[in-house]
From TrEMBL, chain A:
Keyword Membrane: yes
UniProt cross-references to PANTHER family, sorted A to Z: FERRIC ENTEROBACTIN TRANSPORT SYSTEM PERMEASE PROTEIN, FERRIC ENTEROBACTIN TRANSPORT SYSTEM PERMEASE PROTEIN FEPG
Membrane topology category: Multi-pass membrane protein
Residues passing through the membrane, by range: 21-46, 75-93, 105-123, 129-149, 161-185, 210-229, 250-277, 289-311, 318-339
Source species: Geomicrobium halophilum
Keyword Cytoplasm among record annotations: no
Name by which UniProt lists this protein: Iron complex transport system permease protein
UniProtKB/TrEMBL annotation, chain B:
CDD domains: ABC_Iron-Siderophores_B12_Hemin
Entry annotated with the keyword Nucleotide-binding: yes
Residues covered by the ABC transporter domain: 4-240
Alphabetized InterPro entries for the sequence: AAA+_ATPase, ABC_transporter-like_ATP-bd, ABC_transporter-like_CS, P-loop_NTPase, Siderophore_ABC-ATPase
Naturally occurring in which organism (per UniProt): Geomicrobium halophilum
PROSITE patterns hit by this protein: ABC_TRANSPORTER_1, ABC_TRANSPORTER_2
PANTHER family recorded: IRON(3+)-HYDROXAMATE IMPORT ATP-BINDING PROTEIN FHUC
Protein name: Iron complex transport system ATP-binding protein
GO molecular function, one term: ATP hydrolysis activity
Length: 344, 276
């Protein structure tokens, strides 16, 4: 039996690998089960069957408040955040041809952090906190643009982008720390929670504000596929094959900044997902970018969902920021993966 | 057949000029080889012929049209280039690599037509790499790897093929293997092949035309038999040599002077053993 499904008609022709489709199906099932279980546990136990009944509209309504208001919006946001970060990290890693790339390196996290902390430190009580996501996103966009422009010298090369990004991130982090040090303790702790990354107190409005961005940008990620595949072979080969590499690079950065920027805007500095999700994805489906987009999204989403469930239940009555859990569990798991694949 | 010409071409990096005001016409359907000392600009010249380097002045013409005015994808349908020492990403298979040669013929919706499949298979066949299709590029030997990269440029299905030092770092047997492949591509499929080679003797054996680059321009160009002389070698490479006939092919063969261990002759012939 062939490893591929070939689709050919008058308008289009594609070839799809079969194995990733199976992986995606399995990941969807795992994600769904994790979500049902995640909705069950908490300070009040709701049985998984009740959750399922409720989700499919056949519930008694007794748990409506817990599920609909407290747990589900938070979980859906966590899913969107993780999926966005996973894809953003994937695009960047493939674009700069470096497995250590993540949304942090092109200034998204540091830019958003500076903007968010400045907002918390300077405008708390003056301007409504609800514009914080917008401010963070603008910060992310601005710093990314600045890095891109500084890296430009008759075109942008990945290595220049990475080095300037690292320098810029260091400068921004210094600025963030300075603002925290100089602000009152209450503001400082709020800023810290934001920096760590948290989906605490998410409402359906937050989800509704974030979802359109993600739904718009995710399909665009697939459009990067041809560019990624051809640029992997090196700039000389890519130009020789007729690729407009600078234009492609700009679009890829734009999509990736958009995805990671939205995630950071709504959940703060959730680190590590963008770095880790694509690596775990490659573990399952290899190098095919078309397969890695959905797989990285599912893995990233699953990671944040599960980490948040643990963060809000394991230390009851404390509700930890999800970022702590991601780094605390994710980092050792990542090291373990690297240890097992020592050829990397 | 597609023509490739350079007019008043000036090339360089930042302020340094590497090629100054050069004119060149590449014969269609023949093998042309650029030779010259290290750093003379022959690779730079080849790269600019494939629009990998923008000229400081002058232009490269493809079929009477300036490359500056052509869409890069359209150029890629007529001309393929394999730069020096390409590196495949970890884990990429031969099939995935060769498939990329179809890039200029594909689009967002047309990503795997029957034609694409046919040309990829044909390229693998021409380079005798069909049985390697599922291997990763990294697991191959140097010679196989170079054949696979050439297969990728073949899948591009262009009249013109530019190769930058395709035999560097290969042992002698693999060098011959690659050059024989180029010979076949020219001989049986009539492709125009332009290469940079370091080995003057291989250049003389396979090329219809030699272009010797020196002092930012072309020192001499023509058939190997006419062009390769000890004076030319002395000027272009700064080396004394003796030109003899290749015992197998009759093409000019350059034997350099220099130090080295000489084979011991019988005592009686000792006096005449020291030529030069």
């Amino acid at each position: 039996m062939s490893k591929y499904i070939t689709i050919r008609n008058r308008f289009a022709s594609f070839r799809v690998e079969k194995k990733p489709l199976a992986v995606i199906a399995v990941l969807c099932i795992i994600l769904f089960l994790s979500m049902v279980l995640g909705l069950s546990i908490g300070s009040t136990w709701v049985s998984p069957f009740a959750v399922l009944q409720h989700l499919f509209g056949a519930g008694s309504g007794a748990d409506a408040f817990i599920i609909d208001v407290l747990r589900l919006p938070r979980m859906v946001l966590a899913l969107l955040v993780g999926a966005s970060l996973g894809i953003a990290g994937l695009i960047l890693q493939e674009m700069v041809r470096n497995p250590l790339a993540s949304p942090d390196i092109i200034g998204i996290t540091s830019g958003a952090s500076v903007a968010a902390v400045a907002f918390i430190a300077l405008f708390t009580g003056i301007i409504s906190i609800s514009v914080l996501p917008l401010v963070a996103m603008m910060g992310a966009g601005l710093v990314s643009l600045l890095i891109y422009l500084l890296a430009w010298k008759k075109g942008v090369t990945p290595i220049r982008l990475v080095l300037i990004g690292i320098g810029m991130a260091a400068a921004m982090d210094a600025l963030t720390t300075m603002m925290i040090v100089f602000s009152p303790i209450r503001t400082a702790s709020q800023a810290y929670t934001w920096l760590t990354g948290s989906v605490y107190g998410t409402t359906w409005e937050d989800v509704a504000a974030m979802a359109p961005w993600v739904l718009l940008l995710m399909p665009l990620a697939f459009l990067c596929m041809r560019a990624i595949h051809v640029q992997q072979l090196g700039d000389g080969i890519a130009v020789g094959l007729g690729a407009k590499i600078q234009w492609q690079r700009f679009l890829m950065i734009l999509i990736s900044v958009g995805l990671a920027g939205v995630a950071v805007a709504f959940a703060g500095g959730v680190g590590f997902v963008g770095l880790m999700a694509p690596h775990i994805g490659r573990f399952f489906v290899g190098r095919s970018f078309a397969a890695l987009v959905p797989v990285s999204a599912l893995i990233g989403g699953w990671m944040v969902v599960v980490a948040d469930v643990i963060a809000r239940t394991a230390f009851l009555p404390l509700d930890l920021p999800v970022g702590v859990l991601i780094s605390g569990i994710g980092a050792p798991f990542f090291l373990y993966l690297l240890y097992r694949n020592r050829h990397l | 057949m597609t023509f490739l010409q350079a007019h008043d071409l000036t090339l360089g990096y930042q302020d340094a000029v590497v090629i100054d005001d050069l004119d060149l016409t590449l014969p269609t359907g023949e093998i042309t080889v650029f030779v010259g000392a290290n750093g003379c600009g022959k690779s730079t010249l080849l790269r600019s012929l494939a629009r990998l380097l923008k000229p400081k002045a002058g232009e490269v013409m493809l079929e009477n049209q300036s490359m500056n005015e052509m869409a890069t994808k359209d150029i890629a349908k007529q001309l393929a280039i394999l730069p020096q020492g390409p590196v495949a990403p970890e884990g990429l298979t031969v099939w995935q690599l060769v498939k990329q040669g179809r890039y200029p013929h594909q689009s967002l919706l047309q990503q795997w037509s029957k034609q694409d499949e046919a040309f990829v298979k044909q390229a693998l066949k021409a380079t005798q790499t069909e049985q390697l299709a599922d291997r990763t590029v990294h697991s191959l030997s140097g010679g196989q790897r170079q054949r696979v990269w050439i297969a990728m440029t073949l899948a591009q299905n262009t009249d013109i093929l530019l190769l930058d030092e395709p035999t560097t770092y290969l042992d002698m047997a693999h060098q011959i293997e690659i050059l024989d492949l180029c010979f076949d591509l020219n001989e049986t499929e009539g492709r125009t092949v332009v290469m940079v080679l370091h080995d003057l003797n291989m250049a003389a054996r396979y090329a219809h035309k030699i272009v010797a680059v020196k002092d930012k321009t072309i020192y001499t160009e023509g058939r190997p038999e006419d062009v390769i002389t000890s004076d030319m070698v002395k000027y272009v490479f700064g080396m004394e040599s003796k030109i003899i006939d290749d015992p197998l092919f009759g093409s000019p063969m350059c034997v350099p002077y220099g130090k080295g261990r000489k084979k011991k002759k019988p005592a009686a012939e000792k006096e005449i053993a020291y030529v030069n």
